[in-house]
Amino acid sequence: MHGLSLIVSEASRIVVFSGAGISTESGIDDFRGPQGVWKRHQPVYFDEFLADPDKRREHWKYKRQSWEQFKDAKPNAGHRAVLKWHEQGKLRGVITQNIDGLHEAAGLPREVLVELHGTNLHVECVGKDGQGCGWEMPARPYFESLGPRDDWDPCAQCGGWIKPSTVSFGQSLPPMAMQQSERWCRECDLLIVLGSSLEVSPANHYPKLAKQQGAKLVIINREPTPLDTLADLVIHAGIGETLAGL
Q: Fewest C-beta atoms under 10 Å: which of 3, 47, 75, 216?
């Protein structure tokens, strides 16, 4: 723990790269683990969602079920530690693979947060061709307006398909989010990975980029990752307990 404390105390431009491991400590299932979401549900690809009404209903049924878990989840000690770095003026930004909105719920301002895979906390129009008309709203009132049914209503503005504001399989990551993430990784002096397997591309490119630019790299994850040998410090333990120890 002394090594982590020293590395953090010496840093002034920290970038956090967070994955499912920080969210599981708030009771949210991961996606790729042995009991992960994708072991129980086949993902609906974006082109299937646009073209097939049965696939849209399947996607909404899954999102309806997962919303029951997401809606009442609370930030944990890991999220609060990241917020503390921001309050101390040491945080350059947070790049997260998570769609639960817990970094924002902890109080982190959106200008220092990039959600690479979108968020479950909003729904939006994607049109019928994947473009959309720009309509969006918070997810909670939208799900409440649907009641118990697993179906959904088309966009009131253009008649397009409504979808939770998350990046589906086959859908490109937001270019602006990727550009901001790369900018932060080039500027930081420390990148801390919190709970990511670092197996998903292109997201796992960012810790490598930061290291190449001269930043220190710390990985806190319960399981080994492909980048452990690149890191200055690796801690295989829970995130909350590790950061609370600081």
A: 3
Distance CA 98, CA 197 (A): 13
**What whole-number percentage of the chain has pLDDT above 70?**
93
Q: Note the residue count of the chain.
A: 246
> Is this prediction's pTM over 0.85?
yes
The percentage of residues in the chain with a pLDDT greater than 90, rounded to a whole number, is 70
Stretch 13-25: mean pLDDT, rounded?
A: 95
Cβ atoms < 10 Å from Cβ of 43: 15
Q: Which residues of 120-154 are buried (b: 16+ CB within 10 A; e: fewer)?
A: bbbbbbbbeebebeebeeebeebbeeeeeeeebee
Q: pLDDT tens-digit profile of 187-200?
A: 999 999 999 999 88
Residue tagged active-site, from 41, 117, 205, 236: 117
Is pLDDT of 181 > 90? yes
Please answer whether residues 20 and 31 qualify as being in contact, where contact means their C-beta atoms are separated by less than 8 angstroms: yes
Q: Is 117 a catalytic residue?
A: yes
